[in-house]
Design brief:
The chain is of the alpha+beta class. Helices cover 52% and strands 16% of the residues.
Amino acid sequence: MIAVAFAFSAALILLTAIVRGAGATLVRTPRADALHDAGEGDHRAQIVADLLEDRPRIQPALGTVVTTLLILAVIPATWALARLLSGWHLAVVYAVATALIVLLSDLVPRTIGRSRPRSFAYRFSRLLAIAIHLGEAANDLVSDDEDEEEEEEEEGHDERELISSIIEFGDTIVREVMVPRTDMVTLPATASTDDAVDLVLEAGRSRIPLTGENIDDIVGLLYARDLLTLYDQAAPPRPAKDLAHDAYFVPETKAISELLREMQAKQQHMAIVVDEFGGTAGVVTIEDLIEEIVGEIVDEYDEEETMVVPLGEKAYLVDARLDVDDLADTLDVRFPEEEWDTVGGLVLGLAGRVPDVGESFEYGDVVLTAEEVQGRRVSRVRVARR
């Protein structure tokens, strides 16, 4: 019986060590990497990506599970040692056992987990999913009554949103926050400065990309400040390219946390985003990056866009630029976000072509109808759940 107790304790300590080490790896795994690996066919990476979608829940849930496992491991070991020893011998063994348990179930696993990003999390992804689910359920059982919980949740909502945004900031790539090429405001380099002034006033932009042969040929950036200086000097019109500044180019897969540091260091406020083929994918500003942390920044001249318009029960008219994650939250469904970034991309993916106006497509119990199509681009989509 004593041997069984020791074996049971050892098994639980081993399980605790695995959960602790895998958890340490999980929280250090960028979600973008997990999504990339999932796209290459690793189903374990998809489980990890799903878990990382809500990072704030991971540590509390795993902490509850680890604590519970350690308590369950200590009880039979304590009983068995008490049956074998007594007096100061028992006290010494208890002290040594405590140190070993802390070392083997916490310090060593965490050290190993931190040194092996992704691998441990992928290997034990199913175990982590079960542990987090059980930990969340246990935390819900010991939470305060519903009224107090709602009050605390309301008070801490903004703080949690900010913390969550900061955590997700490290996993977001440029493609997810950029203004796509179809929405870019550009000016031909051959245009005059008078044309540039008109465009700046109309679009309300402080920086305008200048194009050469086409939008994939960005030859520089035109600053509104330079145009104001020219205007103040009452200088005659001249080609806009004469005032061009060098453009700053970045790949669409770059992490925005890294890009923000680079833009601060290089004193760049706008970057041209290029795809893997060297074409222009879009444009991103330092304001776009900061908005990922603090939310939308609207000044007195901005016209706030309504991305989602309720049409009735479980029906919405949405801007095709809406992020798929935001639509999933609105409908309380889940879409495979590694395939599509926007609702327009989702519709194009389901159609396999540019859809006709009024054409509908289904994904599970969600029906998406192309309400507006501009050229090769879907601009508005009607979404409903059946």
